[in-house]
Amino acid sequence: MTDSEQNSELTVDKLCVRAGDSLLVENASLDLRAGELAVLLGPNGAGKTSLLRGILGLAPTVTGSVRLRGRTLGEFNPQQRARRLSYLPQRRPLAWPSPVRDVVSLGRYAWGCAPGRLGATDRGAVNSALAACGLLEMAERSTDTLSGGELARVHCARAFATEAPLLFADEPVASLDPRHRFRIMQLIRDHVRTGAGALVVLHDVSLAARFADRLIWMKDGRIAADGPPAQTLTESRMAEIYQVHANIDGKRVEITEPLQNE
Amino acid sequence: MNPRAMLIPALLLAGLSALFGALLLGSTPMEASRVLAALAGVADATDGAVVWQVRLPRALAAFIVGLALGGSGAALQGLLRNPLAEPGVLGVSASASLGATFALYYGFFGISAWLVPVAAVAGALFATLLIAAAAMRTSSVITLILIGVGLSSFAGAAMSLLMNLAPNPFSLSDMINWMLGSVANRSFPDIAFSAPFIAAGLAILLAGRRGLTALTLGDEAAAGIGLDLRRQRLLVVAGAGLATGGAVALAGAIGFVGIVAPHIVRPLVDHDPARSLIPSALLAGLILVLADIGVRLLPTEFELKLGVVAALIGAPAFVWIAMQRRTISAEQD
After folding, report:
1. Does B29 touch chain A (CB under 8 A)?
2. Distance, C-alpha A99 to centroid of its chain
3. Does A87 contact B266 at a Cβ distance shorter than 8 Å?
4. Where does B30-332 sit in CATH, by number?
5. Domain ranges in chain B?
6. What's the distance, Cα to Cα, between the start and end of chain A in Å?
7. Cα(A15)–Cα(B311) distance, rounded to whole angstroms?
8. B62-103 per-position pLDDT tens digit
């Protein structure tokens, strides 16, 4: 274990994710510390979701190493992994009109409980996740009566209830209004303040710059840059990654026009 | 006390009452005292024979078949995240029926009586495997139901073919018995050959029920919270295949009860597929015992088949549930 690994929750080294003949992620290396919010940026198809799924072990063909606090991820069975790393996927369908509390209780699934059958610790974790996301007063409501913003909070609460030291969230603010985007990012920020590390995929660069400790830029399956917004958020980076012209002023981002393809 | 905690005891009580009712009623109604005496073995020989050899095995067969179909329906609905999934609709029952018919008419029965339930289970497992494999490739509900329609039609066609080609002569009415489903004239040995498969199937489904709740979140998030998707699919396919195959070996293909029972139960258990499993099984058992009592009491010249009555009630319910579902998804889009 190297020194840098010692205070690192997650260390990814030379991760490659393949699907058939195509290489979705190529030699991605990154680490994530406790109390750190990293935002993964990049255009559609850059391999952001594949990177998350590759780290989680959900993608089919993965090479490279993933360590959680120095231990290889492959040592863990799915439940043990889920206790250490909670995952909020991009698509979040709910099959049944379950009560909010039951959906959030599924965050405790890896701890061996089922909705309606929670131990004291689990009930405490579920209640504090509900409280953190402002859901206590609608805990008994059915999820099919909620608005998009409320549902997004339910999914966050589900991920928080696991109380895992790491959180992966894939576009948690997709299709939300500006106010709810802020609210969800603030929830994740608060969650990170309790000591967790978070890796969040966003498409909103301004929102990323406002909330992230670190920006990880991806393009064509590779990590192109990794560092604090002040260092990595530049006009040339926006041109390189997104093919747009942007005016950058500190953390303010104004996208003016797409670059012309030669 | 929480009314939801009363659901299973209430269904058990209702099931036992219906079973007892099935012993009282029939072409010659018997008073409760005579039935109790016959059950205790202290009645005269006629009463004893009516209760022990005719009414009790028939009612028990209906109940056990209901348990298997209700439990399989609830589990398949949880796995496929679809309230319309059911052994009958998905073609599992028809495939099992084909297996059983094949075994019967090609004389496997002469080799070992176990081969009939084994062939039915094999047919059911083949169908559930096919559907689970399709479900992994597509999230489209319509595709799965179309596969079920295809499987049912194929099984029906193959049974007609068997009828044409079978080496030993057999009657159309035997065939219709298998296709329509009935528990008439079942004996305890019949039950004994099917019950182990049904018990094993239901035990497997119960062992894997917690994962059904996780699947509420969709495959990706369910894997994220620690569910082993492959294992879960295998458990449900094996459990539903064994239970449905056993049920079909005992009573032929009885459709729709696996849809109706979970549909009634679901709102009472907060729409949790795991918690709907046992109540759905018990309710389906209760429904089939009651329906079979109805079949016996109806003053028709020829007795109606239990499967026909189940379809007469269940098919309109299926259409109604399907139409409701369309309105809900339209609102979400």
Report:
1. no
2. 24
3. no
4. 1.10.3470.10
5. 30-332
6. 47
7. 55
8. 999 999 999 999 999 999 888 888 888 888 998 998 988 888
